[in-house]
Design goal:
alpha+beta; Immunoglobulin-like; Methyltransferase, Methionine Synthase (B12-binding Domains), Chain A, domain 1
């Protein structure tokens, strides 16, 4: 009998140790917890801009993570939410049934109440919350709506269901070439040439027909035209065949501190028009 009680006790302790908790660590969350990105820069205030949302359900608890874009300044080490009139409104529904609807003041870094607790970790722009959860619904059947209020005004909003459709995001990889206006080894590399140079990258995309984004600096393109015109022809044929996407570049761009502002402004304008 004593062994049975001991086994039950140890099992309970193990479950408690393995239970998910708010730690202020983004790595505690899994990609399976992700339910969606929110557009950055659409916030109607200088704070409260949602960038992504995660959620998970464990037994009788629901966990929510909101990553903001503007909670903290790493340069000045300032928590922008402190002492601000800022709230999170969380609404969870299934079909036409409202399961949860509450507003939380989030200017403090942590709070513990009877039915909820939250932790803010400013250096990670991170807000985590745990609420009591008794609804016997899988996450896939839930719909989450999050509203951020600052100074009593709605400044940002996020909505998503709990399905897998919202997992994942888009990313673009760009090959960038940067060189002065002169002869360069960028195109075919240094000895041994078979292990370096932009030609190696082009050959991979040409052989696999996997599209690649190429950004050649404004000074690199005329250098190729003068010394290796066949390289520009190669890029052009890659565009025609669909394995090269060119991100064009203006001569000078915006990286010429020795030029007057008029020249730099013109270069940036041309760059913007070309892209």
């Amino acid at each position: 009998m004593k062994k049975s009680y001991l086994l039950i006790f140890l099992t309970t302790i193990c479950f408690q140790l393995l239970a998910f908790e708010l730690e202020g660590n983004p790595k505690s969350w899994n990609k399976e917890d992700f339910i969606g990105f929110d557009k950055v820069g659409d916030c109607k205030s200088h704070i409260g801009d949602i960038s992504s949302v995660f959620t998970r359900i464990e037994t009788d608890k629901l966990f929510l993570r909101i990553t903001f874009d503007d909670m903290y300044s790493h340069k000045s080490k300032v928590d922008y939410f402190t002492d601000e009139d800022i709230q999170v409104k969380l609404t969870i529904t299934t079909g036409n049934t409202k399961l949860f609807d509450n507003v939380f003041e989030i200017d403090k870094t942590s709070k513990n109440e009877a039915f909820f607790s939250f932790l803010r970790t400013p250096e990670y722009n991170l807000f985590e919350m745990k609420i009591d959860w008794s609804a016997e619904q899988p996450r896939e059947n839930l719909f989450f709506n999050i509203e951020i209020f600052h100074n009593q005004n709605l400044v940002d909003e996020f909505s998503a269901d709990g399905s897998e459709d919202y997992r994942g995001g888009n990313a673009a990889f760009v090959h960038h070439g940067n060189q002065g206006l002169t002869y360069t080894e960028v195109f075919y590399g240094q000895d041994p040439q078979e292990t370096s140079g932009f030609d190696e990258i082009l050959e991979v995309h040409q052989a696999t027909l996997i599209p690649g984004n190429f950004h050649m600096s404004g000074t690199l393109m005329p250098a190729a035209e003068w010394h290796n015109p066949e390289f520009n022809d190669w890029l052009e044929s890659g565009v025609d065949e669909g394995y090269v996407a060119m991100l064009t570049s203006a001569l000078g761009q915006h990286m010429m501190p020795f030029l007057q502002n008029d020249m730099n402004n013109w270069s940036v304008s041309v760059e913007t028009d070309m892209v």
